[in-house]
Design goal:
Blueprint: H1 2-9, H2 14-20, H3 23-48, H4 56-63, H5 81-90, H6 96-116, H7 124-135, H8 138-143, H9 150-169, H10 174-190, H11 192-208, H12 212-236, H13 240-250, H14 260-266, H15 283-306, H16 309-328, H17 339-357, H18 366-410, E1 418-421, H19 424-431, E2 434-436, H20 447-454, E3 459-463, E4 477-480, E5 485-488
Parallel strand pairs: 1-2, 1-3
Antiparallel strand pairs: 3-5, 4-5
């Protein structure tokens, strides 16, 4: 990367020169980044734990490549990146702890590589600080060992933006161009629409600067990662527009929706806030959220004074476009949606904090450094309290699904089988059954098909306790599970419904 870093070094300020001069700071800084990434993996295993069962969305993704249960319905917004990510484990092992350990190690490696690409663009201690900030958010730790796409969009965004900046400075840097392709492809594999939002400022900048080769690399990466999603749109949905419309419908209809308050509510430890009409949490929980834009402005001011505006402004712009649809275009919230924005903000935020805490020669300012340290300590305490709560609640919910599956097995509902109704997808996976729905976002069958299936294999209709069963299941035998009720069709050959 020698061609890519030298021109950038000419525009560095005195503070950057102080941090980047000498091999000892370089080695210690990059060693610290590796240490943070390793601690991130360890923290996932200790604080989240490998024994937590699979969640609803994870079941959908893992079932596409696993052999424990039939593949769950794959709705329009989803992409095939996560099934590809878990395939090396899920294709031959049903062990959830093994999958968790694999994902924790992989996400730690992903954090290290995604931020290591930024070396030469920012001082090593800034990168280590950015890694520490991002890795200690409860949402990052919670989703690190989970089979979900958003964290991997974040890693792809970091790689893509860093390599874009390198290639923009040195047009002969071929490795940077390939990095742009790889980062964009990773984002598009995981969530194609998110990839487009993240890449939007980069595409505009490439066109404005007439850097056609760089713009082509970015477009090639988006196409490479999203091609399968587009092909599937024509095969299964009748076209790209139809799939986008269906995805919008499932997400409640994309359009102007002010969801900032929803995101604030979700920061208290909600995996999915839909509908998001609960009480606002204590300001202590979300105070850090309002500090981020202030630090971003400070980072931009520092960058302007240091003569390196572009390197700070571009990730800030990409963070803004990544967050925009989830703050202003959907009517609900999930904290994981903003992981790419947090990852891109982490570097300027760390840069601002380091600027406030140190003198131009690299020595600490005692009073500001102490205030920042106290603030970060309080921030970490809040993050870990929220993490502990959501882990306990999530683990309990998934254990309930497992107990319901065990009860269904005792009632004779075993593979091959079919479950419909409330929470049929996760309970069906835990039971080893297929899942079906005749309406809603996961509709994939009809009442007639369900009744025909009941003549061949065990079929159960799930409802909330006291809930109204579907018309076709009202005469089926009722059984109470852990927080659910199931009505099981008469055994095949025992005079089932016609």
């Amino acid at each position: 990367m020698a061609h890519g870093t030298k021109p950038m070094g000419l525009s560095m300020g005195r503070r950057d020169e102080a941090f980047l001069s000498g091999r000892s700071w370089q080695a210690r800084g990059h060693g610290l980044l590796a240490a943070v990434a390793g601690a991130f993996t360890l923290a996932q295993l200790l604080l989240v734990g490998p024994s937590m069962g699979l969640g609803w969305d994870e079941v959908v993704y893992v079932s596409q490549v696993g052999g424990d249960a039939p593949a769950a319905f794959f709705s329009a917004p989803r992409a095939r990146g996560v099934p590809l990510l878990v395939w090396p484990i899920a294709s031959w092992s049903s062990s959830t702890p093994l999958l968790r350990v694999y994902l924790a190690v992989l996400s730690g490696l992903g954090l290290y590589l995604a931020l290591r690409v930024w070396r030469g663009l920012f001082p090593p201690r800034v990168l280590a600080g950015a890694a520490a900030f991002f890795a200690t958010l409860w949402v990052t730790l919670f989703y690190g060992p989970q089979a979900m796409p958003n964290l991997w969009v974040a890693f792809g965004a970091l790689i893509c933006v860093a390599c874009f900046l390198r290639a923009r400075t040195d047009r002969l840097d071929r490795r940077a161009l390939w990095g742009v392709v790889a980062g964009a492809a990773l984002m598009a594999w995981m969530r194609p629409t998110d990839a487009v939002w993240v890449a939007l400022p980069l595409l505009v900048l490439a066109v404005a600067a007439r850097h056609w080769r760089l713009g082509g690399a970015l477009a090639a990466g988006l196409v490479a990662g999203g091609l399968q999603w587009v092909i599937e749109a024509f095969v299964s949905y009748g076209g790209l527009r139809e799939r986008l419309n269906e995805a919008s419908r499932i997400q409640g209809g994309l359009g102007w929706n002010f969801a900032v308050d929803d995101q604030l509510r979700s920061l208290a430890g909600s995996g999915l806030c839909r509908p998001c009409n609960g009480e606002m949490p204590s300001p202590v929980v979300y105070a850090w959220w309002f500090v981020l834009p202030l630090l971003a402005v400070c980072a931009l001011a520092v960058a302007v004074l240091a003569g390196r505006t572009t390197r700070t402004l571009v990730p800030l712009a990409c963070a803004a476009t990544a967050a925009f649809p989830y703050l202003f275009m959907i009517g609900y919230a999930a904290p994981r949606f903003l992981l790419p924005a947090y990852a891109l903000l982490a570097i300027p935020v760390a840069d601002a904090l380091l600027h406030l805490a140190t003198r131009p020669n690299g020595r600490w300012r005692p009073v500001p450094a102490a205030v920042i340290a106290l603030g970060l300590a309080g921030h970490l305490a809040v993050q870990f309290v929220v993490l502990d709560r959501i882990v306990d609640r999530t683990t309990a919910n998934r254990e309930a699904w497992s107990r319901s599956a065990a009860a269904l097995h005792r009632l004779g509902v075993r593979q091959p089988c079919l479950l419909t109704g409330h929470e049929a997808i996760p309970v069906g996976y835990y039971t080893g059954c297929d899942s079906g729905a005749i309406s809603g976002n996961n509709a994939n069958t009809t009442e007639a098909d369900i009744l025909r299936t009941a003549r061949r294999i065990p079929v159960g209709a799930l409802t909330d306790p006291g809930g109204t069963p579907p018309r076709y299941a009202r005469d089926w035998q009722l059984h109470r599970l852990d927080g659910l009720e199931v009505r099981i069709a008469p055994a095949p050959g025992a005079g089932g419904p016609e």
